[in-house]
Specification:
The complex is a heterodimer. In chain A, strands 2, 4, 5, 6, 9, 10 and 11 form a seven-stranded mixed beta sheet that branches. Chain A has a four-stranded antiparallel beta sheet with strand order 1-3-8-7, with no helix packed on it. Chain A starts with a strand and ends with a strand. Chain A has no helices and eleven strands. In chain A, a hairpin with a 3-residue loop joins strand 4 and strand 5. The relative contact order of chain A is 0.33. Chain A is mostly beta strands. Chain B is mostly beta strands. Chain B is built from no helices and twelve strands. In chain B, a hairpin with a 6-residue loop joins strand 5 and strand 6. The chains are: A mainly beta, B mainly beta. Chains A and B meet through strand 5, strand 9 and strand 10 of A and strand 6 and strand 11 of B.
């Protein structure tokens, strides 16, 4: 158990509203990641962090921003949610020198 | 850019039988890791097995084994003695080994839904 929690676990929101998803880890891992999962696409990397205040874009970063002010928290923000951002969002940490990642339970986000 | 392709959207197997899930990938790197993850209906992502590209020996974990063909860029997962609890979505994933800007990022395939029939 890598001690990863995500909040909220489910959220329904309306188009145009801001949304922030939180990932919290308890084991001081340096690397953290946000993915989205959509049918037919597997998981795709949105943003990642390699340390406090050190973040970078992934494959599908448009419309998303992140922040990491503390080692244990990695926040994903949708500044103005759109229906295309309806998805399941996973946070992950890298826990080994072999690039194994361990995932949180996911957040199901619905944008109406 | 690296790509990972799982060409079987769905597979099925009888309980106690063997099934093989296919995965191909494309990369210009010579050193990397490959993974299989399992996602049961609970949605939790579970690491099943890891293969290091610099190792010729195929990885095994209990009933799970891989057939890693580096030249062909193929990485299949074999599940022996299938159990009802093996029913899940399975994802193949790739990660370059080097440090620097790779930062351990994973590239996933589209997934294969495995059904196990009693």
């Amino acid at each position: 158990d890598a001690g990863i929690t995500q909040s909220p676990r489910h959220k329904v929101t309306e188009t145009g509203t801001p949304v922030t998803l939180r990932c919290h880890q308890t084991e001081n891992h340096r690397y953290m990641y946000w993915y989205r999962q959509d049918p037919g696409h597997g998981l795709r990397l949105i943003h990642y962090s390699y340390g406090v205040k050190d973040t970078d874009k992934g494959e599908v970063s448009d419309g998303y921003s992140v922040s990491r002010s503390k080692t244990e928290d990695f926040l994903l923000t949708l500044e103005s949610a759109t229906s295309s951002q309806t998805s399941v969002y996973f946070c992950a940490i890298k826990d080994s020198p072999y690039n194994e990642q361990f995932f949180g339970p996911g957040t199901r986000l619905t944008v109406l | 850019a690296q790509t990972v392709t799982q060409s079987q959207p769905e597979m099925s197997v009888q309980e106690a039988e063997t099934v093989t899930l296919s995965c191909t990938y494309d990369t210009s790197e010579s050193d990397y890791y490959l993974f299989w993850y399992k996602q049961p209906p609970s949605r939790q992502m579970i690491l099943v097995i890891r293969q290091e590209a610099y190792k010729q020996q195929n990885a095994t974990e209990n009933r799970f084994s891989v057939n890693f063909q580096k030249a062909a860029k193929s990485f299949s997962l074999k599940i022996s003695d299938s159990q009802l609890g093996d029913a899940a979505m399975y994802f193949c994933a790739y990660s370059p080994r080097g440090g620097g800007t790779s930062y351990g990022k994973l590239t996933f395939g589209q997934g294969t839904i495995l059904t196990v029939h009693p």
